[in-house]
């Protein structure tokens, strides 16, 4: 049966508009065009910014009660349409239908947490009388909205990563322009519809679809934009920061996360967690396990078990309930992964399993004997490839884990508290997950990395801190208390 081609509009300062130029949205599984969205012009971006400045004033005047109500109603609207959201994620992106359902549930949770955190934007009193001569001064600080925010989001979590920017922005009383990935824009547009249905006043939100090469510079460099929240690759983040000017930046720039498996670990649990963490969403996950350092005493059994678990993964139709891994986001990405693996094999790596490509599908792959200084070990693969390496002890595992430019999250499997705390203290990253893989996150926790993995922290309450400014208030009284 022929699919009806969807013509989606973008949200421009609260109004749904269609442009003259359109972008095709393809299903990466078979290349079928499933929808078309507008390719925004620079003039439309400038209009969104102009209206967004006014929207920031409108948003700042919304009471906490009003912000909470909008967020709760938006979450309820998504909850009622879970199937639509899940099917959209699974069709336009790489996730299987089961992975997509989990993302929808997380999105609902993110928006509901945002509603709760709106009531917790607190300040503190300041003891101004701590210095001589100020005995008649009292005061406090409180947090105020930062203003107009631009959020640029990637394809791999096309709904929840947008929610992680939109929910806190609304909770904090800001206006926001969202630029979703041009390959997965429909989920973001559906999320915008949830907020319009929830009664969000016009001008507070724009969701602009288009090519970053055409509209990106205007979005990030405009002086009326007070903050940029970006999730994506390091190279893109570096370009954005060089063009942004004096404004607040929050960036999550990916990683090549390590996991450590010590000889006292529960090996079966480690295998299960690491296989899941490496191949969730076809490995297109900033938290995905890329490197595993296994203590020599248990290396052989771990290698055998993880290879067997990887071979058993069901790869195929994303909408099938049996499928555990779908395609990469484009065939070009699959070809990139293929070239990386072939280069590693030419340089002496061994292929334990996988290593084949068909269109946008790349089989889940496990490599051994990889040079730790090679490109595939040092850079973010962002695909279904897992690297195993034998180590002598925890000291060596930590040293090798840190020997990269990234530091988002890491995992360690051990039953020894001393070893766990040593890893917590010495691993250079934003989060250490004990007895689970690096691929663990709840939407309320602070999330972000060190080194090239980013600037600042997400997680709803922590995003709100980033999206507000402190203002000090001091009263000079006529007489002392």
Automatic annotation (TrEMBL):
Domain Aldehyde dehydrogenase positions = 22-473
EC code: 1.2.1.97
- What's the catalysed reaction? (2S)-3-sulfolactaldehyde + NAD(+) + H2O = (2S)-3-sulfolactate + NADH + 2 H(+)
Q: Which InterPro entries match?
A: Ald_DH/histidinol_DH, Ald_DH_C, Ald_DH_N, Aldehyde_DH_dom, ALDH-related_metabolic_enz
Q: Which UniProt keywords apply?
A: Oxidoreductase
Coiled-coil regions listed = none
Which Pfam families does UniProt cross-reference here? Aldedh
The source's superkingdom equals Bacteria
Any single GO molecular-function term of the entry would be:
lactaldehyde dehydrogenase (NAD+) activity
Entry function = Part of the sulfo-TAL (or sulfo-SFT) pathway, a D-sulfoquinovose degradation pathway that produces sulfolactate (SL). Catalyzes the oxidation of 3-sulfolactaldehyde (SLA) to sulfolactate (SL).
Q: Which family does it belong to?
A: Belongs to the aldehyde dehydrogenase family.
Name this protein carries in UniProt: 3-sulfolactaldehyde dehydrogenase
Upper classification of the organism: Bacteria, Bacillati, Bacillota, Bacilli, Bacillales
């Amino acid at each position: 049966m022929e699919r009806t081609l969807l013509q989606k509009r973008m949200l421009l300062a609260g109004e749904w508009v269609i442009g003259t130029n359109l972008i095709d949205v393809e299903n990466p599984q078979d290349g079928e065009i499933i929808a078309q969205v507008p390719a925004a012009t620079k003039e439309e971006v400038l209009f969104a910014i102009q209206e967004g400045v006014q929207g920031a004033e409108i948003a700042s005047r919304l009471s906490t009660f009003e912000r909470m109500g909008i967020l709760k109603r938006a979450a309820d609207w998504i909850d009622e349409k879970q199937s639509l959201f899940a099917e959209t994620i699974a069709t336009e992106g790489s996730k299987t239908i089961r992975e997509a359902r989990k993302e929808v549930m997380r999105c609902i949770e993110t928006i509901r947490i945002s509603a709760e955190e709106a009531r917790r934007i607190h300040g503190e009193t300041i003891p101004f009388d701590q210095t001589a001569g100020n005995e008649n001064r009292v005061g406090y600080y409180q947090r105020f909205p930062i203003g107009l925010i631009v959020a640029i989001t990637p394809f791999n979590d096309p709904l929840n990563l947008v929610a992680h920017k939109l929910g806190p922005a609304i909770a904090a009383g800001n206006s926001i322009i969202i630029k979703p990935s041009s390959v997965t824009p429909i989920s973001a547009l559906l999320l915008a519809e949830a907020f319009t249905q929830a009664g969000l006043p016009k001008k507070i939100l724009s969701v602009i679809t288009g090519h970053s090469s055409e509209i990106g510079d205007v979005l990030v460099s405009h002086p009326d934009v007070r903050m940029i929240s970006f999730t994506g690759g390091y190279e893109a983040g570096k370009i954005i920061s060089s063009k942004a000017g004096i404004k607040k930046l929050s960036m999550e720039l990916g990683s090549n996360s390590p996991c450590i498996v010590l000889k006292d670990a529960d090996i079966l649990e480690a295998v299960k967690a690491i296989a899941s963490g490496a191949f969730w969403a076809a490995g297109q996950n900033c938290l995905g396990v890329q490197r595993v350092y296994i203590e020599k005493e248990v290396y052989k059994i771990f290698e055998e078990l993880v290879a067997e678990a990887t071979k058993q993964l069901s790869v195929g139709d994303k909408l099938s309930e049996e499928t555990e891994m779908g395609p990469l986001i484009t065939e070009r990405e699959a070809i990139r992964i293929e070239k990386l693996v072939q280069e590693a094999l030419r340089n002496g790596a061994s292929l334990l399993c996988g290593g084949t490509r068909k269109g946008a599908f790349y089989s889940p792959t496990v490599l051994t004997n990889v040079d730790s200084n090679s490109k595939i070990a040092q850079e973010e693969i962002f695909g279904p490839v897992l690297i195993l390496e034998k180590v002598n002890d925890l000291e060596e595992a930590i040293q090798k884990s840190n020997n990269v430019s990234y530091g988002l999250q890491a995992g360690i499997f051990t039953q020894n508290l001393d070893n766990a705390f040593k890893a917590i203290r010495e691993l250079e990253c934003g989060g250490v997950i004990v007895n689970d893989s690096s691929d663990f996150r709840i939407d309320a926790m602070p999330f972000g990395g060190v080194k090239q993995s980013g600037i600042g922290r997400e997680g709803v309450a922590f995003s709100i801190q980033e999206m507000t400014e402190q203002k000090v208030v001091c009263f000079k009284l006529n007489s002392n208390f």
